[in-house]
């Protein structure tokens, strides 16, 4: 989930450039599009993160507060951590997978259209760790993805991968922002290679992501997760405030709008599709809303097998599909969507039932009588 803040590039005082070059080469062999190294000192942004948490902007993501000390200090994730090897794994290029929204279908954010990135990134980072461990037996290496309490966007900026945009995602000047971050913490001291770029913020006076966000979740360099469609559809496990219903449009799992409008994605040549890892080849960009509303536990398990979407419970994805179905009815007038919402007002699942009733209140329509 996006957090806030700008970053600075800070030189390291390492002494082993050849070890860094070797480590970065191993990561590139594993298919990562961008690589860099940096020091693993504690974060510069502790006060900012504490304030963000104190304001409750993390919503129901209590794990962000639970592991706060470790998030602020890599030494608590890997004792004696001196350096971080940071990688970016490209998952989308415009030329390879243009988006085509269709009426009656609920859209999935691009990062979740292929195989689960956690498994893919960890497997390849572990392979690099195994080689490095063999070459440096006196040192330790620990792979991280976004499941570990690491400030990966700050490390990415230090390592020359990209700057943190006003929408709080990392942007690379050449490849844009459609990538995952991961990396390896190590006790080895690594000096950035001479050709590792320094990162500057290229947002300038642009406000496109802020202006385009349908739920006004972005202030410069900070996100209120409670308002973000990505959070609401994937992390938020209870009722969604009706004020967001219409603004959620057809998104049922994540949202790509702030990345779509960013000129560093939309106004530059698309990166070479070959740079995107094959694990993220889209298996489907959307689901039929009426089918999702009728899903059983088995249907959900089958649809989300091997996908990062499996964190979305059955009642949550049906809740999200209901919101999108109500919006499909608003857009098309197709009565099947309204009937589906009315029927769900008597659903056995409380989250589905209450969402349907909230939607009907929002539309100023009565629920159908139970059969
Ligand atoms: S545009 Fe979408 S993903 Fe970006 S902050 Fe707004 S709601 Fe979240
Ligand atoms: S849309 Fe503009 S302000 Fe937002 S991240 Fe991209 S360049 Fe920065």
List strands and helices in order, with pairings.
Layout: H1 17-29, E1 34-39, H2 46-54, H3 63-66, H4 68-72, E2 83-90, E3 105-108, H5 117-135, E4 141-144, H6 152-158, E5 163-164, E6 170-171, E7 179-186, H7 208-212, E8 218-219, E9 222-223, H8 229-234, E10 251-253, H9 257-260, H10 263-266, E11 286-288, H11 289-293, H12 297-303, H13 314-332, H14 335-344, H15 350-363
Parallel strand pairs: 3-10
Antiparallel strand pairs: 1-2, 2-7, 3-11, 4-7, 5-6, 8-9
Helix pairs in contact: 13-14, 13-15, 14-15
Order of helices and strands: HEHHHEEHEHEEEHEEHEHHEHHHHH
Residue-averaged pLDDT? 91
The spatial strand order of the largest sheet comes to: 1-2-7-4
The tally of beta strands, per DSSP, is: 11
Evaluate the radius of gyration: 22 Å
Low-confidence stretches: 1-17
Strand content: 5-15%
The first-to-last residue Cα distance is: 42 Å
Bound molecules: iron/sulfur cluster
Helical percentage: 25-40%
Q: Tally the helices: what do you get?
A: 15
Shape: elongated
Category by helix and strand content: alpha+beta
Largest sheet: 4 strands, antiparallel
């Amino acid at each position: 989930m996006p957090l806030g803040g700008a970053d600075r590039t800070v030189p390291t005082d390492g002494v082993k450039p050849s070890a860094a070059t070797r480590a970065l080469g191993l990561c590139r062999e594993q298919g990562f599009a961008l690589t860099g190294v940096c020091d693993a000192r504690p974060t510069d942004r502790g006060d900012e993160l504490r304030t963000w948490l104190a304001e409750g902007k993390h919503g129901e993501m209590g794990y962000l507060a639970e592991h706060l000390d470790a998030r602020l200090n890599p030494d608590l994730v890997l004792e004696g951590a001196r350096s971080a090897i940071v990688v970016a794994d490209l998952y989308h290029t415009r030329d390879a997978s243009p988006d085509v929204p269709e009426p009656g279908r609920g859209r999935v954010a691009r990062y979740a259209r292929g195989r689960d990135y956690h498994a893919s990134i960890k497997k390849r980072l572990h392979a690099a760790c195994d080689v490095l461990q063999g070459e440096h037996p006196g040192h330790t290496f620990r792979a991280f993805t976004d499941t570990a309490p690491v400030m990966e966007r700050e490390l990415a900026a230090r390592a020359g991968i990209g700057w943190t945009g006003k929408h709080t995602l990392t942007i690379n000047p050449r490849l844009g922002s459609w990538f995952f971050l991961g990396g390896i913490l190590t006790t080895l001291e690594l000096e950035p290679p001479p050709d590792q770029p320094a990162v500057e913020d290229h947002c300038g006076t642009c406000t496109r992501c802020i202006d385009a966000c349908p739920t006004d979740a972005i202030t410069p360099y900070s996100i209120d997760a409670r308002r973000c469609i990505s959070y609401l559809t994937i992390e938020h496990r209870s009722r969604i405030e009706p004020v967001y219903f219409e603004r959620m449009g057809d998104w049922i799992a994540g949202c790509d709008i702030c990345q779509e409008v960013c000129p560093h994605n939309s106004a530059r040549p698309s990166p070479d599709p070959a740079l995107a890892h094959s694990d993220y080849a889209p298996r489907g960009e959307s689901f039929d809303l009426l089918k999702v509303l009728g899903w059983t536990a088995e249907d959900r398990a089958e649809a989300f097998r091997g996908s990062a979407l499996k964190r979305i419970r059955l009642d949550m994805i049906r809740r999200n599909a209901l919101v999108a179905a109500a919006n499909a009815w608003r857009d098309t007038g197709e009565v099947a969507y309204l009937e589906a919402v009315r029927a769900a007002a008597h659903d056995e699942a409380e989250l589905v039932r209450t969402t349907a009733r909230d939607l009907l209140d929002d539309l100023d329509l009565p629920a159908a009588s139970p059969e």
